[in-house]
Amino acid sequence: MPRTAHLHARLVASLAPFVLALSLAPSAQAVDAKAESEAKKLATDAMDNDYLGLDLKKAKSKLQKAIDRCGADKCSAATMALLHRDLGVVLATSKDAKGADAEFDAALEADPKGEVPKDYLSNAEVKKAWEAAKKRAKGSSGKPSGKPSGKPSSDEGGVTVKFTTAPVGYEFPIVVSVPKGVSSVKVSFKTDAMDKYRALEAEKQGKVYVAIIPCAHTAAAGEIKYFVKAFDDSGNEVDKKGSVKSPETLSIVATMPDGEETPTLPGDKEPKQCGDQGDKKPEGGGCAADDECQDGLVCAEGDEGKKRCEAGEAKSKAKKPSDAPARFFLGIDAQLEFVSLGITQDLCNQSGWACSADSVTNINGRADLGNNTNVVLANGGKTEGGTAVGTGRVLVSADYFVTPRLMIGARGGYAFNGNPTAVHKFSPIHAEARFHYFFNEATVRPFLGLGFGYGEIDAKITNVIVRPQDPSFADPTVTDPQGNPIIPKVNAYRTAGAGFVSVGTGAWIFLGPKAALNLGLKVIFPVPTFSFAIAPEIGLKVGF
Asked: What is the pTM of this model?
């Protein structure tokens, strides 16, 4: 028993450090992946674009928005440290010493081993504020701040760039090899004509990352300054090559030096050859109009009020506002229905049908037949099916493009060729709501359409053979195949609707940005009286 107690005591003693460590370990923070990702994107944009472009106000706004997006508990401590650190850099550069102190203190509180990248420390105000924050952190914790943990060890290798010289007239591929742990790479470059660096997101191709410097910057011999940053999955910078203050250099030459390898893309693919730019100006060059700038550049007014060639689609190639397609169109359409009849017996005595005769014995003029009229039919005639020409319509339309491909609209108008009987009084009113989806934004735009509304559809059949119960209404000189006297010149009308749903296709052919010809074909499903119809339509649309 004493031996057992002794072993138990030794076991407890050996486990005590682990129990203590677990009891003192902080609880894991629940990270909102979406919030953290959005915050990192804002921070990267703020530092790589706005800060490098000296737009400190915009950089500050984006970083503050990123911190607000993280809130109190949505992002990891490492991310919060990065956000507060970068905001401290921006505030220090803006000479807001008090604000920078607060942000750097928050950054070191979140990550006591955090560091500011060397290229930021080249700013005297940033370096001064950061050193002061580290001293305060050391005084409060008794431990000096360490080196950044995200930096790869020396045996992992660093960022390297394969090609540094390229011939004039080709895109320049920046092929970057990176150490382990890198998940994204950004290349920032600047020519002598450019006021600020432009950041390119490198694309991973196999084991390397590739960023392309476009033709606008390689059309003439010269030098291009650049630097590269490599980031891990969390958005932390883990390595770099060059910096804003100490950039690397690329050379664009008329003739490649002897022994120098011409740049190629992975797989030994040749870079894209640039078109002849003539005397057009590169990015940063002074200009008065877009056509003075190289392809891919636009003549824009800079902060100093002078116009320079900058990245963007040239107005000379883009549509002018006055030439852009209109979004609201008024139009007029003509439509004609062809109604499916089906095989029907005794049709003049059926609901959904109305019949009349141009002349009936003892009755002057047109007379309505069957369906509880004063002319009762013993045989109401029949149809063998097929289609018949139905009502036609003239419609006024109003349509609006919610997007360049989605249109909503309404039509109203007048229908004609409906049945003239009192058995089923025809309504000529048409009212319709509709939706179109266009498959492209070209001159000829095919579409699919959906519509619904109110509008009766009638179709006429002539010379229907009907026999009245009262022979006095018949013409004794005209008989059916059985020799029975019939009523001559009887017209039957198929009545369908008055509600309907339609689906169809067609195309708008644009005659200009504000005029189009509409050609369509649709299938109409009338309700509650059903007899589907096929309807071609043609119309003219005018935009505003």
From this structure: 0.44
